[in-house]
């Protein structure tokens, strides 16, 4: 599926998140471009979720601005913004009594006219996403009957159906078993016409499936760049406050956590 809208650069200018522990850190000026797949890495409480919500325009920063295609993100109307940016939350709270298919169809709102009529293109988008996320057998199941992993796959399917140019995903592997973690990260890796940012707790999955790394420290420090330029053992140990050992498997760098001394 190709993005419905071309990918306009998403740029932060002198950004500080609205978190007390970040106020003394250097502000973040960073650009997200088409074709980039970023892993947002950091320990619990570093502000990864806050950063994603701020990039999506759902939370105001303490300082700085966010531009989408040169325009302040706050100037975009809801439907236009939804065609450009989609966000998957870490936890899914919308457990109202609708079926999986009904919720999936609602995700096409940004592409529908005033009356919200479902077109053939809308139905094709729903069918494709449910197939790719292995949800077709569950089409008539109520949200309240889904497991955590099924609900997470549905959230990702809804993002595909929404079809924005920029995908922001908070913990795409949340609740997923190993098979679906690999399948979904491979699917996300293939979205080369889009721009993606996903928060991940697994450093090794980030190194395998993402092209760029963004390290966010609890005190607000940040560093970022192409994956190859970010392979720094001491930086990862500082990020997680954990000794690590580096090794290679099938050409991929992996980092193994050592026991505390």
From TrEMBL:
Pfam families: ABC_tran. The keyword NADP does not apply. Gene3D superfamilies: P-loop containing nucleotide triphosphate hydrolases. Keywords: ATP-binding, Nucleotide-binding. Residues 10-243 form the ABC transporter domain. One of its GO terms (molecular function) is ATP binding. Signal peptide: none annotated. InterPro entries: AAA+_ATPase, ABC_transporter-like_ATP-bd, ABC_transporter-like_CS, P-loop_NTPase. PANTHER family: ABC TRANSPORTER ATP-BINDING PROTEIN, HEMIN IMPORT ATP-BINDING PROTEIN HMUV. This is ABC transporter ATP-binding protein. It comes from Marinospirillum alkalitolerans. The lineage of its organism: Bacteria, Pseudomonadati, Pseudomonadota, Gammaproteobacteria, Oceanospirillales.
């Amino acid at each position: 599926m190709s993005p419905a809208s071309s990918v306009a650069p998403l740029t932060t200018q002198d950004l500080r998140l609205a978190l007390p522990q970040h106020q003394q850190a250097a502000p973040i000026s960073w650009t997200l471009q088409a074709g980039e797949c970023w892993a947002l890495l950091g320990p619990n409480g570093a502000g990864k979720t806050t950063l994603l919500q701020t990039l999506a325009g759902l939370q105001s920063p303490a300082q700085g601005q966010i531009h989408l295609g040169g325009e302040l993100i706050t100037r975009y109307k809801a439907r236009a913004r939804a065609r450009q940016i989609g966000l998957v939350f870490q936890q899914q709270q919308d457990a109202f009594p609708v079926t999986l298919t009904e919720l999936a169809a609602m995700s096409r709102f940004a592409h529908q006219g005033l009356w919200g009529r479902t077109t053939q293109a809308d139905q094709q988008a729903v069918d494709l996403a449910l197939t790719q996320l292995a949800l077709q057998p569950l089409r008539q199941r109520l949200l309240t009957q889904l497991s955590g992993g099924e609900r997470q796959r549905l959230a990702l399917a809804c993002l595909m159906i929404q079809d924005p140019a920029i995908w922001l995903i908070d913990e795409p592997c949340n609740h997923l078993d190993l098979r679906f973690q690999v399948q979904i990260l491979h699917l996300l890796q293939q979205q080369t016409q889009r721009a993606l940012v996903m928060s991940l707790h697994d450093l090794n999955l980030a190194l395998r499936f993402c092209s760029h790394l963004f390290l966010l420290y609890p005190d607000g420090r940040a560093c970022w760049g192409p994956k190859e330029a970010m392979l720094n053992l001491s930086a990862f140990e500082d990020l997680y406050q954990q000794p690590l050992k580096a090794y290679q498997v099938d050409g991929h760098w992996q980092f193994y956590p050592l026991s505390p001394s």
